[in-house]
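Following the same procedure, sequence and fold were stored together, as reproduced here:

>
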Amino acid sequence: IAAHLSSWLATNQTRVLGVFLQMPGEPDLAALYAQLHDSGVLLAMPVVLEKNTPLHYAPWQPGDAVAKDASGTLAPVTRTDFVKPEVVLAPCLGFTASRLRLGYGGGYFDRTLARAPRPLAIGIAYASAQVEFAASAHDVALDLIITD
C-alpha cells in the first residue's frame, strides 16, 4: 500500500497531506510518513474538537506527541494553527466499488468531505476489505482507493 501511495504522490504534487495513525485492522504507513516529512511534505493529522463535527487538521511530524481527542482517537497534542490539506488519507475498514468507506462509525470523514472546499480524498485499505453495503444519505464517496 505504501509503495502504491508513494507512486501516486510522486506524480501528484502535494504540499499538505492529511494522514492518520492506524488503529487495529488499518494499514501502517509510518515509514512512508517519515520519508514524506523528510522530503518536505507538510503532514497534518485529523483532530476531533467536538463530537459530530468535521475534522480539523493539525500539523504533525513523526515523533510528535499524541493524545486522545474528543472522539477517543490519537491526535497531535498541539492543536492550534490548523491547516487545510490538499489531499487527505482516509483509513477504510471496508470499501465499496463506488468508493464509499466503512470506518468506525463516527461520520467524521463524511462531514469533512461534505464541506467546501473539499480536499482530494484517498481511501487506504487492504484489497480484501472490499464489500458491498447500501449507502446512507450522509455518505460521501472518496476520490480514489489505494490498496495492496
In short: The longest strand covers residues 42-47. Residues 2-11 form the longest helix (10 residues). The beta strands are 16-18, 42-47, 56-59, 66-68, 74-76, 87-91, 94-95, 101-102, 120-124, 144-146. The chain has a mean pLDDT of 94.
